Amino acid sequence: MLDELRQVEEEARSSLRVVQSGENLEIWRRRYLGKNGALTEMLRSVGDLPKDERPAFGRAANEAKRGLEEAFQRRADELERQDTERELRGGSVDVTLPGRPIGPGHLHITTQTLRQIYAIFADMGFQVYEAPEVETDELNFGLLNMPPDHPARDMWDTFWVEEGVVMRTHTSPGQIRAMREYCPEPIRVILPGKCYRYEQVSARSEHQFYQVEGLAVGHDIRMTDLIGTLTEFARRFYGGVGRLRMRGSYFPFTEPSIEADIECILCEGLGCRVCKNSGWLEIAGAGMVHPVVLENGGYDPTEWSGFAFGTGVERPAMLKHGIDDIRLFYGNDLRFLRQF
Amino acid sequence: MKVPMSWLEDYIDIDVPVEDLAERMTLAGLEVESIEYVGLPQAELPWDPEKIVVGEVRSVRPHPNADRLVLVEVDYGEPDTEVVVTGAPSLLKRAGEDELHLKVAFAMEGARLYDGHGSGREVLTLGKVKIRGVPSRAMVASEKELGISEEQVDIIYLPEDALVGMPLVEYMGDAILEFDIKGPFAHLNSVIGVAREAAALVDVPLRRDVLEELERHGTELSSEPDYLNLEILDPSLCPRYSAALINDVEVRPSPFWMQLRLRRAGVRPINNIVDVTNYVMLELGQPLHAFDYDLLRSRPGDERPAIIVRRAEPGEQMRTLDGQMRVFDDRMLLITDGGGPVAVAGVMGGEESEVSQETTDVLLEAANFDYLNVRRTSRELGLATESAQRFGRQVDPELTVKAAARAAYLMRDLADGEVAHVMDDLFPGREPRRVVRIQPAHIARILGVEVPTDDIVRILTSLEFEVAESDGDPDTLAVTVPSHRRDVTRPADLVEEVGRIWGYDRFPTTRMRDELPPQRENPRLEGAERVRDLLVGCRLDEVITYSLGSIQDEGRLHPGTPRPDADAYLRLRNPLSSAQDTLRQTLLPSLLETVRQNLRFVDRVALFEIGRIYLPVKGSPLPEEPRRLGIVMTGPREEPSWLQHQDPTLMGFFDLKGVVETLLNGLAVEGAFEPAAQAAFHPGRCAQLTVDGDSIGTVGELHPLVRETFQLPDQPVCVSEIDLDGLLAHCGPPREMAPVSAHPPIYEDLAVVVDEEIPAARVRDLIVEAGAPLLRSVALFDVYRGPQVGAGRKSLAHRLTYQAADRTLTDREVAQVREAIVSQLTRELDATLRG
Ligand SMILES: [Zn+2]
Asked: How close does chain B come to A56, measured CA to CA in Å?
């Protein structure tokens, strides 16, 4: 009897393996596990056995039944999975087709660059301060240590609106405005904005451009702080690969004055067209705020000191993205702007 | 400014490579923009010292087979001479001459030279050739072949002092530094000025001989010499006037060395007298002027010529050296003689008294003029001469006599002149030497670097400052400023000198240890950035256009009406072009122009700009600069893609309104749209945007006529211009949360039929008002016009959602609310319900 049980079980398992559909599976189940199934029949016939064999056979038969029920369930799951997959395969798509265009639009490359600059300086405690674009001669030049007829005024080609009123040639007049507003607090601001120069437009120069000015005023602001701040900015904005150098320069409103250069990121310092073969690219003009300017802002230069710097916006973006013509910025060709 | 190293080396010994020197000068603020090498190994065409040497032509013989060629015998320092075939014009003329001693640049077989007859700069290697049957393996070279000049003229002749056989590169190789001097510093605009800086930087002494000619020759200074009556009538504009007389000069070309130096410095040689004035100006920085002494007139009754420095009479005239007649005003300073003007002080000489080929006696002027006055005169006359530019940067008044002596003795040497023993010198504007006191601690406070006091003293002394301990204060230095440093007046100026010579490359970097200032909120910036993000999220591209436009462009927004009043605008006095001469008062013209240009390449254009406009303010020199937000949208709603090939729907009023609503919603601002009439807009598709009763902008489709004036295609162009600052002013406090109900909502549709004139917003407002508080939301989902609702009526179908926060609503409750809504609509709007 036990042998018979083993045989039925073996047969059931091997036939289950070849079952390929739900219907056949049901037939199988009926055949072995159904009310009149082979195994059920055998369990029913336990009574025919001698008394002492019954418990052993009963255990074996129940075990076999449980085993087959489990096998059935596994096979059923497997078949269902296969069915689902077969079904899905019929609805497959060409995954290489382009997706549905969603947007969004594009921020102007200047805005994106300004935001990067804001973020870097915000981490160092510099907040954005905005100032007018149409300025008095006095703020644009005079209070920045360039009285009328000062030869340094030649450094800026100026649009004149009327006697004493100019389109600001740089963001520096904002220094005076910030100082006069915040005095006697210490200051840490950046001043972004449009500036204007009376200059013929070419691939390298525009009559309208952006600048970001920085100003820190405090009781203990040092030239080494300025160099540290510019170094930090260059490292974060340009990715911190090349060397940086500070060289002496001249601006009427700072003293000492310096310019910061980075090793040309295009030729890695070997010399190319963009860096005019010098291997260096100027990234900022800077210096310690001139005592006359501090005084004009309301700060006593014997107790206060400060630094200021100015950097372009278009030129850094040009370097970063390999843009070779500044006119692209305000020409607003969407085929250009949508690249960023 | 170009400075040849060979010239610089007259004043300092430089033992570092020229590139290192250039780098150190650049770091110290004298930016070397480029180095041009002549013949040196770094040059584009190095002169091989073995193969290109000084040669001497000994004889010239006719070529046996050619008229246009000669055979030249050249001694080049070897035992045997070399015979060279050449066609050089100046040697052709000498065919048959013997016992010559003409020094030339001689190149031997294997030398690399430029092709003298080629069009560009092709390098040739000299080889053995036969020219018309005569072998030749060397040549006498021209400037073009040596790479000194672009034109092929004749071979180069060297002075007699050139040693035969000496490598040419040793004799005249050079490196020319081109400086970009920042700032108005006359003291750096000279070879001696650059040398002084270089000496301080590499710590070597400066040879000052050229500054000391006066002392060397024992020349006397007098305000009353026997050859001139000198008077300064306006000492404030002419602090000093010095003059020297050089007699019996012979005007001729300058010697080779001077011509070479002038050319390398970028100045064209003219004749020995003019060249000396230019040379000394380059060398010392003092502009000089040479008068033909015999053409200067005396005052009536005087024997000697007169020089009177005075302001011009209004309308006074003179012809300047460039042949132009100039008219002066009474603020301009003139040099006059007994008869009238002979020069515009510090700017340009007059034609009449100019040095010419016939000149025998030269009166040399070395004066000092007020720099602001020279700048003004130069600007007013449109004469930006080298002299005016230098005087405009404050020339050292001590230089006049030094430069006059230097030039006079050069004229003696180069023009065989005789220098009058007494120099004329009037110096009414002499100033005491300035002393600036500074503490090393102050230098450390500003720089952040403790430069040892010894180094501070060494640096300042090397720049010719005199440093002493201040009386009774051991911590303070008393620094006497040399006369050439007109720019140094206060301690900060000395801090800079110490910093730049010490070297900024040696400075450590530090982080600010100063107190962090109070951090402030900045709603102005944050608001604008939020607007940008919202609009970019609405698939708009940001543009930035020019602030400068034209009145004509602003007028294009109002076709058929007269041009806007120019007086209502700020306008440039010196515009680059008439298209950009006005400060804009609207963003729309430049945005529409941007759209027009982009439509050539792109179908769907949706863009915005945030920018300032400029509104004049009565009684204030400065305008207001409020910010505007401009939006333009036109073209198909969707970019064509394979997913929706055929959606030709063009963007219209409601596409734009959707963007504006999204913007308002994102800013938590409640806005209202009311029908409006504006000239630039489609009369039936224009809304005024108001917030809390303030009108802050316009939203609509462009009027077809305006569309035409901007050459835009025949399709809706949706345009909005919003007062951004006005909008942001209404940004409310953060929104308060409304609880999300866990109880099920009940939905119901309500089609309200009203008269055509009744705005949809009015219907909606009434529903909301009457349905409160159980009416949770209302959404319009259909607008119907047609026979079923009757003429002049429209049906507005709304989906209403009812919901309570604390319970499930019963049908009875909902019916009551609905009843209230319907009766309100009927009462107020004469509405009926449809279906
Ligand atoms: Zn480069």
From this structure: 60
* Helix and strand numbers, DSSP H then E, in chain B: 23, 42
Assess contact for A164 and A138: CB atoms under 8 A. Answer: yes
A228 with B509: Cβ contact below 8 A = yes
Cβ(B721)–Cβ(B687) below 8 Å: no
B524-554 tens-digit pLDDT: 999 999 999 999 999 999 999 999 999 999 9
CA of B496 to the centre of ligand 1 (A): 29
Q: Out of 3.40.50.261, 2.40.50.140, 1.10.3720.10, 3.40.309.10, which CATH number does the structure's domain B52-172 have? A: 2.40.50.140
> Could you read off the pLDDT of B546-592 as tens digits, one per residue?
999 999 999 999 888 888 888 999 999 999 999 999 999 999 999 99
Pick among 3.50.40.10, 1.10.3720.10, 3.30.465.60, 1.10.10.60: CATH of B215-426: 3.50.40.10
Distance CA B804, CA B741 (A): 7
8 Å CB contact of B185 and A165: no
Calculate how far, in angstroms, residue A322's C-alpha sits from the geometric centre of ligand 1. 12
Nearest to A256 among B500, B548, B602 (CB): B500
Domain B523-729 has CATH 3.30.930.10: yes
Instruction: Calculate how far, in angstroms, residue B5's C-alpha sits from the geometric centre of ligand 1.
Output: 26
CATH number of the B2-40+175-211 domain: 3.30.56.10
Q: Provide the CATH number for the domain formed by A109-337 in this structure.
A: 3.30.930.10
Bridge partners (DSSP) listed for residue B665: none
Instruction: State pLDDT tens for residues B451-460.
Output: 999 999 999 9
Residues of B in contact with A334 (CB under 8 A): 541, 598, 601-602, 605, 607
Q: Would the CATH topology of B2-40+175-211 be identical to that of B435-506?
A: yes
Contact between B700 and B687 (Cβ < 8 Å): yes
SS3 state of residue B399: helix
